[in-house]
Amino acid sequence: MKNKPKLIIFASGSKDGGGSxxxxxxxxxxxxxxxxxxxxxxxxxxxxxxxKIADEYRIKFILFKGPYVAxxxxxxxxxxxxxWVSLSGWLKLALGLDPQxxxxxxxxxxxxxxxxxxxxxxxxxxxxxxxKRGEVEYSAVTMHFVTEIYDDGPAFFEYxxxxxxxxxxxxxxxxxxxxxxxxxxYITNLVIHEEIKWDGKNRESLVLPEGYKFxxx
Length: 217
Hints:
The chain has five helices and seven strands; from the N terminus they run E-H-E-H-E-H-E-E-H-E-E-H. It has one domain: Rossmann fold. It has helices at 20-31, 49-56, 70-80, 121-132, 169-192; strands at residues 6-10, 37-43, 60-63, 84-87, 102-106, 138-145, 155-162. Helix 1 (20-31) packs parallel to helix 5 (169-192). It is globular. Strand 1, helix 1 (20-31) and strand 2 (37-43) form a beta-alpha-beta unit. The mean pLDDT is 96. By secondary structure, the protein is α/β, with parallel strands linked by helices. The chain starts with 5 loop residues before the first strand and ends in a 25-residue tail after the last helix. The chain has a seven-stranded mixed β-sheet. It is an enzyme of class 2 (transferase). Its EC number is 2.1.2.2.
């Protein structure tokens, strides 16, 4: 039997909650939607929501309080022996990781609503403001490979989320989050089984499955 791809998940959550995306990944791993060995979960909060989920499912928990430099990230990867990295609500800049094997999920369109400081409610606020100016009609859940610049790696998944006339940043966030939870595990599985891939340097090298329809051009 072929060994399952070894995956580590970086998820910040908060000091007293969060980690909903992590929970979805773990539970979808149990059902087989995500065909991986989740080796460990990393958070910068010692006893937050991410830790609670890791403990609940008996997954190795790693507290990472920094410094957030390449050597420290690489140390975690080496010590856990993982092949793939998923950033799921990780709010620190990831450095020193293999861009071919590191992915992130983002609650908005990139590059318009990505980059340093564009996370969580900041993304939804900026999107609603742009909508009110007539600049956009929809938001999106985006997944992309990770380079050492925030949200700069090539996107391989964009699922549009229509903005309603009465939307607020909060109501838009709820619907975007629902889409994130519904698709992250499935698309992550395509990446770790190399049906979606790139060479880590040239975004034009991006390879997608035949008939794949989840990237808006």
